[in-house]
Amino acid sequence: MSGLSTSMLVAAATAQRASADIDRQDATIARACLRRCGGAGTVLLRLIDHALGRAGLAVLERLLLPGLRAHYAWRKRRIANWAQHACEQGVAQVVMIGAGYDGLGCALAQRHPQLQVYELDRPASIAIKREALNELCLHPSRLRLLAVDLARTDAIAALRDCADFDAGRPTLCIAEGVLMYLDPARADSLLRQLAQALADPSLIATVMASQAGRPGFRREHRWVHAWLQRRGEPFRWGCARDELSQRLRACGWQLQTLADPEDRLDPDPSPGEWLFLAQRPDA
After folding, report:
1. All domains of the chain in start order, with CATH
2. In the predicted model, what is the mean pLDDT of residues 107-134?
3. How far is CA 265 from the centre of its chain?
4. Average pLDDT in the 115-137 region?
5. What is the mean pLDDT of the chain?
6. Which residues, at least 6 apart from 76, have a Cβ–Cβ distance to it below 8 Å?
7. Residue 52: is its pLDDT beyond 70?
């Protein structure tokens, strides 16, 4: 993983927030993962650890996608709060789809002794995450890391291969920053599988907003789209705000809460991604 990826950018933003005393364990995991991401990870760590590097990153962000790092923090703060509430309300399993280098799964497994947590991601990302957690002695026995290519492999089949996974238990699925990278038909199929295979499911997820007919952030420079294309990570799925409920219903979900990007007290610093909580109507 010598090239730069979006998961590495998210990890770098998380690692940099440690100076603001947000979640230090989350930042520690992100740094440990970046150290294993080859040259690009090393460069990112050097940049965020020096004032000149941080200034350069801030200028680049303002030019290409203003407010992106603050958007990641806004998104993660809400996901962590919703997930914590779900666990307090009796969720027995958490399935994190495309977990990347995030520390939420580890934190939830530590806080809730009866909770089983399953993280699904690409084999290379899972290998890096596993090494990082082992180095930090932060691998709870109830945290499972599963290597799955979501673009080609059935996520439910991977879960069923785990002897301790029980589709009949209340399960929270989290798909942060992943559905937009899937082909729309593949994203719909994944959502339907989760709704149909789990007896008592809930879902926290994000999907890109549709900007001028194309999924993307509201203030992104056209170079962002070109870079994502070169990286093989283009945004493939997006929808307008008034289309989201209908799209979810077609996949077996009912929209419960949509994080308002225009919230007067805590607006999204870089709008363009819908963050929502959904449940199956009969659950």
Report:
1. 6-64 (no CATH), 68-219+234-279 (3.40.50.150)
2. 95
3. 24
4. 95
5. 92
6. 14, 102, 104, 176
7. yes
Q: In 204-227, which positions are buried (b, 16+ CB within 10 angstroms) versus exposed (e)?
A: bbbbbbbbeeebbbebbeeebbee
pLDDT (tens digit per residue) in 212-267:
778 999 999 989 988 899 888 999 999 999 999 999 999 999 999 999 999 999 99
Q: What is the pLDDT of residues 148-176, one digit of tens each?
A: 988 777 888 899 989 899 999 999 999 99
Q: Which two tokens stand for residue 4?
A: 């730069």
> Dihedrals φ, ψ of 252, to 5°?
95, 15
Q: What is the pTM of this model?
A: 0.94
SS (H, E, C) the chain: CCCCCHHHHHHHHHHHHHHHCCCHHHHHHHHHHHCCCHHHHHHHHHHHCCHHHHHHHHHHHHHHCCCHHHHHHHHHHHHHHHHHHHHHCCCCEEEEECCCCCCHHHHHHHHCCCCEEEEEECHHHHHHHHHHHHHCCCCCCCEEEEECCCCCCCHHHHHHCCCCCCCCCEEEEEECCCHHHCCHHHHHHHHHHHHHHCCEEEEEEEEEEEECCEECCCCCCHHHHHHHHHHCCCCCCEECHHHHHHHHHHCCCEEEEECCCCCCCCCCCCCCEEEEEEECCCC
